[in-house]
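2024-03-11 09:14:02 DEBUG pipeline.ingest accepted 1 chain
2024-03-11 09:14:02 DEBUG pipeline.ingest length=173
2024-03-11 09:14:03 DEBUG pipeline.predict start
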Amino acid sequence: MPRFSAIAIPIALVAVLGCASAYDKTYNEELGRLEAEERARQQAAEAARAEARAEASRYVAVVYFKVGSAMIHEDGYHELQWFVDKMRPYPGLDIDVKGYADSTGSEPRNQQLSLERAKNVADFLVQQGIPLQLIAPAGYASNFPDEPNDTAKGRSRNRRVEVRVTYNEASDQ
């Protein structure tokens, strides 16, 4: 009997160790497969976000204003509603709202007016359901004119707010 036990114990140990080794191998293979699937899911999600940003960045709204005014007029509301409708399939994208003025006022007044215009547009976007934290209003006074300020037509094109999607890596995290 002692001989049988002496043989049975090493055989049992080999069987147990062999099973553990096979288990580890199966476990590691399954873990590797699951990690690869997760990486593929993350890459697909990033590709979808990039595609959405690219698609949404095609849409730009421009709202024009009267001299010395920050009030949005009917045409401006239509333009902004068009933009909001285009953005609905792309929730979560950051939006720049940049206000500008012509050169007829003082720079401090133009700065205030351009920011007020941008904030009014941002308020409208929030009323339409775009989260405030995604909107970045800014005023640029008479800097960055769209056209020269030496004609009435040029000045009218410079009294504007531009609304567009911007890319912010922090929003993807």
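2024-03-11 09:14:41 DEBUG pipeline.report The mean pLDDT is 86.
2024-03-11 09:14:41 DEBUG pipeline.predict end
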